[in-house]
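Dear H.,

Thanks for agreeing to be a second pair of eyes. The structure we're designing against is below in token form, covering all 242 positions.
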């Protein structure tokens, strides 16, 4: 009899950076095999790692960990990107999701979808209206995936020196997999419990990047809301935003 999956989400730590780099490197090769020009700039990887370090230091990056404490996925949130979203978009109304990557070994577990659901619940808990993304402009397979998950295309922006710019949003609180929510652990709970009902207070980041009042991040049991995508054969598809 197959044992139940035990993946869970926890805040990323500095010691996770090598695993994040390995995720990124693996995804770069996989994307090349898919024939997309995404991440074709060799300097993008260094910039991505620098952003991860900053996200970890600021308490806005998370990893999904498996049975053997191996990092299977990563995600960050961040301030609004003013290259893409304007005052007319009411930027404070949204949570901005970045850097979602899922390991190839975890393909088929729908981790990307489940992480997005968790972020959606977090957005609703904070009283926001939307979860927003910007993705690589030429990655049509990724665009289709997001649309299948309920994201609505907003527009495409093409600022100089940026290859992302396909903008989409999904209502906060919307769930694609409501019966398969990711458990959430703090570092202290990581080894002490297989499930956690709630996380301790952590810093909340407004759209301008400033620290706001502490809030409770949603756990698996909360009822309130340049990434992976399905490519038609049930496998998932990587992208990183930002």
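And this is the sequence the design step returned. I haven't edited it by hand at all.
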């Amino acid at each position: 009899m197959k044992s139940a999956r035990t993946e869970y989400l926890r805040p990323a730590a500095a010691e996770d950076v090598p695993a994040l780099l390995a995720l990124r490197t693996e995804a770069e090769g996989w994307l090349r095999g898919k024939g997309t020009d995404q991440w074709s700039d060799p300097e993008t990887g260094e910039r991505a790692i620098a952003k991860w370090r900053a996200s970890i230091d600021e308490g806005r990056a998370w990893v999904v960990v498996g049975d053997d404490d191996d990092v299977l996925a990563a995600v960050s949130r961040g301030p609004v990107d003013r290259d893409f979203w304007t005052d007319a978009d009411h930027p404070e109304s949204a949570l901005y999701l970045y850097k979602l990557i899922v390991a190839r070994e975890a393909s088929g577990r729908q981790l990307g979808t489940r992480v997005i659901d968790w972020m959606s619940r977090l957005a609703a808990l904070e009283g926001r209206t939307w979860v927003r993304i910007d993705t690589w402009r030429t990655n049509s397979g990724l665009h289709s995936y997001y649309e299948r998950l309920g994201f609505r295309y907003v527009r495409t922006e093409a600022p100089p020196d940026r290859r992302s710019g396909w903008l989409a949003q999904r209502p906060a609180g919307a769930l694609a997999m409501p019966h398969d929510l990711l458990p959430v652990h703090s570092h202290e709970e990581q080894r002490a419990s297989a499930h956690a009902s709630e996380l301790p207070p952590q810093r909340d980041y407004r759209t301008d990047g400033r620290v706001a009042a502490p809030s409770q991040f949603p756990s698996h049991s909360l009822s309130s809301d340049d990434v992976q995508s399905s490519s038609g054969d049930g496998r998932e598809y990587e992208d990183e935003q930002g």
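Two observations from my side: The mean pLDDT is 76. Helices lie at 17-33, 44-57, 111-125, 140-148, 189-192.

Warmly,
E.
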